[in-house]
Amino acid sequence: MVAKKTVIKDTTARRIGAASSRKSGGIESYLRRIFGLMFGAVGLTAVASFITLTTPLLGLLFSPHGLSGFYYILLFGGLAVSIWAQVRVFKMNPSTAAWLLALYAVLIGITMTPLIWVALSVNPGSILMAFVVAAAMFACMAMFGYKTVKDLSFLGIVLFMGMIGLILVGIASMFWPAIMGGTAGTVVCFIGVLIFALFTAYDMQTLKRAYAVIGDDTQKDQLAVLGALHLYISFIAMFQYLLSLFNRD
Q1: Fewer C-beta within 10 Å: the chain N or C terminus?
Q2: Number of domains within the chain
Q3: pLDDT digits (tens, 9 = 90+) for 155-211
Q4: What is each CA distance from 169 to 15, 95, 179, 247, in whole angstroms?
Q5: Reduced to 3 DSSP states, what percent helix, strand and coil does the chain have, rounded to the nearest 5?
Q6: For the packed helices 113-122 and 217-246, what is the interaxial angle rounded to 10 degrees?
Q7: Angle at 232 between CA 25 and CA 37, to 5 degrees
Q8: Which among 242, 241, 240, 214 is positioned nearest to 227, based on CA atoms?
Q9: Across 44-70, average pLDDT
Q10: pTM attached to this predicted model
């Protein structure tokens, strides 16, 4: 009887171990999809920015008084694409959602070019420095969000409100550029880096938990695109705020 119980116990343990292994492999594949999409989007952004810098497209982003109307069309168009993708992602084919992510990445690459152009004129080395620091922060915060047992859900509303505040400050600076000058501008950049670093950890934990409760493969593919979009936004935002910070007077 004892021997029989031992056999049953050993068999159960092996099955649990195998199930755990399959689950681990599943989430690893899921995370590979997320980061593959995200890094692909970052690559598209870099290519789009490089093409813009080296073609007449750069001139279309400027007017005699600053940034052109065409620039703002692309800027707000990208914002609209991002919002549309996030709202509709679970009603789209995953490949369609991935194409929207690609489109958004290209638009960000174009609209980020004026910031890159200024950095090239003032301190070219700051571009690499901002990228390395953003990548290091992103990796650390993503790992923290994935590994921590602390519930980060309390950060959601705080980070969302902080992001809205940053967007409003950005819109206001279009009309009153002095807002981003001096100490106030430096503080905004520091806050922006902090908010999107925390967003990285928050999103990683949310994506990990979502995987555990979503059983449908199509929904997991859709969630992978949504996760890639969120993480892409956090990484690019950190890069932009750091680049602005490194090139302040």
Answers
A1: N
A2: 1
A3: 999 999 999 999 898 888 877 776 777 788 889 999 999 999 999 999 999 999 998
A4: 55, 34, 8, 19
A5: 85, 0, 10
A6: 30
A7: 45
A8: 214
A9: 92
A10: 0.86
